Amino acid sequence: MTVSHSAHWGVFRAEWEGERLRVTPHPDDPDPSPVLQNVPDAVRHPARVARPAVRRGWWEHGPGPSDRRGHEEFIEVGWDEVLDRLAGELRRVHTDHGPTAVYGGSYGWASAGRFHHAQSQIHRFLSMAGGYTQSVNTYSGGAAEVLIPHVLGPFDAVTRSVVTWDQIAAHTDTVLAFGGMALKNSQIAPGGMSRHVERSAMAAASARGTRFVLVSPLRPDLPAAVSPQWLAPEPGTDAALMIGLAHTLLVEDLHDRDFLRDHCDGWEAFREYLVSGDGRSGDHRRSRGRDADWAAEICGIPADEIRSLARRLAAGRTVITVAQSLQRAEHGEQPVWAALALAAMLGQIGLPGGGFCYGLGSLAHYGRVRTAVPVPTLARRPNPVRSFIPVARVADMLLDPGGSYAYNGSDLTYPDIRLVYWCGGNPFHHHQDLSRLRRALARVDTFVVHESVWTATARHADVVLPATTTLEREDIGAGGTDALVVAMKPVAPPYESARDDHAIFAELAARLGFAERFTEGRTPREWLVHLWERTEKALANKGFPAPTFEEFWAAGEVTLPTGPDDGGMLATLRDGGRLTTESGRVQIGSAVIASFGYDDCPGHPAWIPPSDPPSARHPLWLVSNQPATRLHSQLDFGATSAAGKVDGREVMRIHPADAAARGIEDGAVVRLVNDRGACLAAARVTDEIRGGVVQLPTGAWYTPAADDDPTCVHGNPNVLTRDVGSSRLAQGCTGQLTTVQVEAYVGVPPAVQAHRPPRIRQAE
Ligand SMILES: Nc1nc2c(c(=O)[nH]1)N[C@H]1C(S)=C(S)[C@@H](COP(=O)(O)OP(=O)(O)OC[C@H]3O[C@@H](n4cnc5c(=O)[nH]c(N)nc54)[C@H](O)[C@@H]3O)O[C@H]1N2
Ligand SMILES: Nc1nc2c(c(=O)[nH]1)N[C@H]1C(S)=C(S)[C@@H](COP(=O)(O)OP(=O)(O)OC[C@H]3O[C@@H](n4cnc5c(=O)[nH]c(N)nc54)[C@H](O)[C@@H]3O)O[C@H]1N2
Ligand SMILES: [Mo]
């Protein structure tokens, strides 16, 4: 039997051919993702967690700090035993330390499917259990999520559904893409995507005459088919390049004075910054300001190229887009804000196919119109306690209870965490400086993880509860910008004794006395019917055909109507509409941000040099970007992901000159090292990367060489990245860039055994 299913990388059909699961893309998908072919291995891979497992020390000696996490063997125990112990531990922590001592940040992408969505389940459970310390913002856009509401408007409203692919194909003359719009990235959309349109939209625009300018250290960040102009500035210097472009627009009188006067606020402060002292000369009056020559010195793009690019931007309909990667870095707020200022100077914000975009092409959700009715989702419950951290500050919190830090104009204090509960995420994938994360997690009393597979996070836990995958349960797949809603049907029974996250939480809720509130007396199927009803009612209210759940389920999918492609809230700005910012206009400067007094995020876009630039010891920039062959760490053992490795090791790209200087040959094993750690990788020598930069994607499961050697033999770049916030404004993740040395590996490289379970013993 063929069933329909949805994953973050696409909608697909699955059916068994003997022992092998055959997975084929949705027939209407014009550009399906190769990541789909990781799925067949997910059902019965040896990396699956088969039974509840507990760290021996925790089971035998009880909760408490331990540096044995990640080193000790596990004991398999029965479901009832482990749930009894865990319920007791939750009760103990609540009674002795209060609800804020539980960290349910639990950040992570989990899987498609709206009801069994792991984040929704854990947050519902922990809210009902009395509350918890939660996380705010994401690793994806942490800096932009705080900045953009100050300077433009609500993050979702002004980033999604404003400039669409259709508009670009029809109207845009120049697309200036900082960080590119890599097709590898737009394979992905949370909840699922039935039609990947980016490749064809870019091709259609290019065929009409749109010119694409790629600003990135990596040439593949825009498809070669659109013949982009490739500018490769030094990583982390985009804000300087943008300021140089802005200076040219100003001094050549190419800026839109009317737009700046009518729709912007704070222009004067930025203008003054452009023309005033640049730090090169002590004499303020002799300075030419932050002009193209100033920018060229910082970013490495010749000044005449900067000037001619500025002229081109002003010569037609231009859209400026900033990939999320630029803000996942120290001072990551600045390139986003500077790009907005540049777009404001061009005066095209709110025009079709023009103005400013955040993240276009970095996820398939951007650049599309939304569905006209809400898709089914499990509603969030309010957390009864107010305790939160910006998500990427997790290790700081665990290492420094009671410590204070600044965030978005407030001074906050880290809570004292005793129990960490993770469900649907992988901090040993997403967090920076993994040795530090290990030390941080050693300090808590109890670390609980629900996982389907033995990730490094599961291996570092005290209690590992085996979760089903979407392939083993029914659910509704929907994203909100893709019109298709998918009836996700199981293709396999639960693996060994795995259970649904919902079922695990329901069992714990029963032990803690709130089962009825948690389940509301519904079976999972009844929940699906309940979630569908909201969409069904919204369809009926708007006069659209409104299939019942039974009709939807029998059909396997339903196509929802979509909203108009009208430019959203930025288009209304031009007709006198007001934004939700402090002045109601675009904030080129912000008195509010200035009032916070942060020198790492002043009151207007600025160039702030990195605090850890390349040095004699660590001369290379490391770009650790999203992997082309999988979503983050998910299904790293799958066929597509495995095919991208060499002898099971992740591939690092390096420029021929940098390779030759180090005696590194294509395919050789290399060691990347800095003060935080080291990892191995396989070298790919290519001139598609800027000199002085190496690139190693995220997602290889962290695999330490030995108990006493944290070198990752598999190629996880987060052993190297720095665990610091973007600035005091947003405290966002800065994992994208760091500096390293790279050397040829001498000797026989250790074999990679990343996807094996840890040592597990049956309980006596
Ligand atoms: N150096 C560096 N680091 C980065 C980034 C970077 O650019 N550079 N990017 C960052 C970004 S943008 C992001 S979004 C994060 C991503 O970080 P994560 O979202 O944490 O990464 P995933 O690998 O998607 O982790 C999801 C985990 O959930 C598990 N899972 C899937 N479905 C279920 C389920 O139904 N139930 C349960 N219990 N578990 C499930 C999967 O097996 C997997 O281990 O990484 C960040 N880290
Ligand atoms: N295949 C695949 N696609 C994904 C994901 C995945 O795991 N796999 N993850 C998804 C998620 S959660 C997110 S948030 C998005 C993230 O979207 P992004 O953050 O935009 O994606 P990245 O691939 O990390 O970075 C994009 C490109 O930016 C370039 N870059 C890095 N540093 C700089 C710099 O300083 N300046 C300039 N100009 N360019 C720079 C790099 O060459 C990199 O390839 O991707 C999504 N798409
Ligand atoms: Mo992300």
Automatic annotation (TrEMBL):
Residues 48-510 form the Molybdopterin oxidoreductase domain. The keyword Metal-binding applies. GO terms for biological process: anaerobic respiration. Its cofactor is Mo-bis(molybdopterin guanine dinucleotide). Belongs to the prokaryotic molybdopterin-containing oxidoreductase family. This is Biotin/methionine sulfoxide reductase. PROSITE patterns: MOLYBDOPTERIN_PROK_2, MOLYBDOPTERIN_PROK_3. Keywords: Metal-binding, Molybdenum, Oxidoreductase, Periplasm. GO terms for molecular function: electron transfer activity; molybdenum ion binding; molybdopterin cofactor binding; oxidoreductase activity. Residues 5-44 form the Molybdopterin oxidoreductase N-terminal domain. GO terms for cellular component: outer membrane-bounded periplasmic space. InterPro entries: Asp_de-COase-like_dom_sf, CT_DMSOR/BSOR/TMAOR, Molybdopterin_N, MoPterin_dinucl-bd_dom, Mopterin_OxRdtase, Mopterin_OxRdtase_prok_CS, Prok_Mopterin_Oxidored.
